[in-house]
Amino acid sequence: MQTFQTKAFDLEQSLQEVNERYQQEKQKRKILHNSLVELRGNIRVHCRIRPLLPFDIASGHTASQDRHKKLSEEVAHVINEETVLVKCSRPGHTLVSKTFQFDRVYSAAESQDVVFADVAPLLTSLLDGYNVCIMAYGQTGSGKTYTMLGPQSEDEVTLSIKDEPELGVIPRATEEVFRLISEKPPGSHWVEVSVVEVYNNEIFDLLAKDGCGTVFGIKRDVVTTKEGKSDVPLLTYETVENAVEFLQLVDRCLQLRVKHPTLVHAHSSRSHLVVTLTITTKAVSADSFAPPWADEQSSQRRSKELFCTFPQQMKDDKLIFPSRASSPVQFQSVEKLKHIKTKLQLVDLAGSECVGMSGVTGTALRETSFINRSLSALSDVLGALAEQRSHVPYRNSKLTHLLQDSIGGDAKLLVMLCVSPCQKYLTESLQSLGFGTRARQVQRGQFKKRNPPVSSKSK
Ligand SMILES: Nc1ncnc2c1ncn2[C@@H]1O[C@H](COP(=O)(O)OP(=O)(O)OP(=O)(O)O)[C@@H](O)[C@H]1O
């Protein structure tokens, strides 16, 4: 008995050691994988399987009990932190299991906290001088808005800091950005926000106001600048000084976002939402060279708005330089000040949709057609990038044209794939997983870092 007990004890100890070693190796592997992603300029893809929800089970048609049960069976399963397994059973076909690998896979039980924990390091990169884009992709009702914003109430769209455990990536990311900024010297960073929706292949500026200060979506266009970057002339930017101000602003815009009930999802978003935070870092330069990306959007800012909203230190700068409208290059060459801009783009795409299932007609059908076309344009762009084709068809859709710099440029791009777990949406889920797999194949070269601010030693 004693011999067995000693053996059991030894075995337990060695198991514990193996476990510890496994965790260490896993951590090392993760670090190496991240370095490889950085070197290749890969698009990171995380996949989130949402829980089975009452509307997955509720009957939308007169299917028999058995068929109904089958349709709401879970077919997408999380195997481990990097693997999804989908059991594909189609009438008349044998059961086939397909596996998909991603940089991170979340099961239905994993909280908004866990999802955000993997996003947070990208925000440190943002303040280190990299552009970052986080984009939710998936079928209608698969959890994109939940992941990006948080749960939406039945009759109104509200974002509140009070719902903290349920908050999605957008409010959490903003809080984190402001937390990181608070560790920097006061007045050295400031944040401007723009919010647009792409609806029926048109871009709407959701922060634009009329003469009476009422907010409404004004149509804007997207153009390619001389430097080959995409730009939206006359887009409204508002300066925000904390996460609460930001949430109020985005809340206002969400009221304007087009929604439409479908058979699949009662609160289906009918547009792609793009929230952009532009972080300007003030830094003293050793030389008077102004990089092309510095202040590239300055001309679009209304000088009055800038003077009213900038931190005191910036207003003092204005006193040194009589004209805020003078070109940024002039401005910088005299004082040797550099303004480094980095962009955080947060995108909640509209969901791909099978018309037969969503049962849409009329206006909603037209919307679906635009949504599906723009998502297919996005897929074509990724295909062209993955195959390193000389021509990438960004301009085939306003969505891809708008996001051109994030998708094909030097931004760190994270695609958050959202997947419904049940049999009913098998085709759409396979399509989304295929999209994610394709995105992972894109290699864009090493990410470009904007010049580090002099104040970075205070990090
Ligand atoms: N991980 C999750 N945990 C709990 N509920 C979730 C989760 N993901 C999604 N849901 C719920 O599922 C429903 C659909 O989610 P959501 O609105 O995010 O879908 P969507 O992909 O944005 O759809 P659409 O493209 O049609 O706008 C919502 O009621 C949401 O609260």
TrEMBL record:
GO BP annotations listed: microtubule-based movement
Domain of life where this protein originates: Eukaryota
Subcellular location: Cytoplasm, Cytoskeleton
Record key words, sorted: ATP-binding, Coiled coil, Cytoplasm, Cytoskeleton, Motor protein, Nucleotide-binding
Ranges in coiled-coil conformation: 1-35
SMART domains: KISc (SM00129)
Main location: cytoplasm
Domain Kinesin motor, residue spans: 42-442
GO cellular component: microtubule cytoskeleton
Residues at which ATP binds: 138-145
Entries under InterPro entries matching the protein: Kinesin-like_fam (IPR027640), Kinesin_motor_dom (IPR001752), Kinesin_motor_dom_sf (IPR036961), P-loop_NTPase (IPR027417)
Gene3D superfamilies for the chain: Kinesin motor domain (3.40.850.10)
Molecular-function GO term, any one: microtubule motor activity
Family per record: Belongs to the TRAFAC class myosin-kinesin ATPase superfamily. Kinesin family.
PANTHER family: KINESIN FAMILY MEMBER 25, KINESIN-LIKE PROTEIN KLP-3
Protein name: Kinesin family member 25
Organism: Pelodiscus sinensis (Chinese softshell turtle)
